[in-house]
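Page 47, continued from p. 46.
Same chain as before, 145 aa.
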Amino acid sequence: MGLTMVGLIRVPLLQRRFAVDVSRFNRGPASALPLGAAFAFGWTPCVGPVLTAILATAAGTGTLGRGAALLVVYSLGLGLPFLALAAGMARGKRRPDWLARNSRRIELAGGVLLIVTGLAMATGSWTVLMSRFLAFYARFGWPPI
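Result:
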């Protein structure tokens, strides 16, 4: 995926755009159901496994407070980027030219990050890095399992 984002490999299927034409939906509460269903359809494969693991971990904690804290942290981690994106979109309406000028740089940075992550996984460096993070968090009793 990183090589595709950088532009070194072209995969026609990945170059296609699939989008829902939101202008077909009426504005107001009646449009919430179809838009929410479309959003859930696209996000369930991404959020589902992580949420399942967090719910299982929260259910297995010794106290209600620890389980609730874990779910609050997960909710903040999921919700705060959306709030930041909304703030950026509001600001971006005033400055769409910045995004247009820098979109390729943003795409290249994301591609390079994917390549580095893939290489780290292939060489075993990712496991070493994550074990260090887990050891750090274990000193504080996290994750609470």
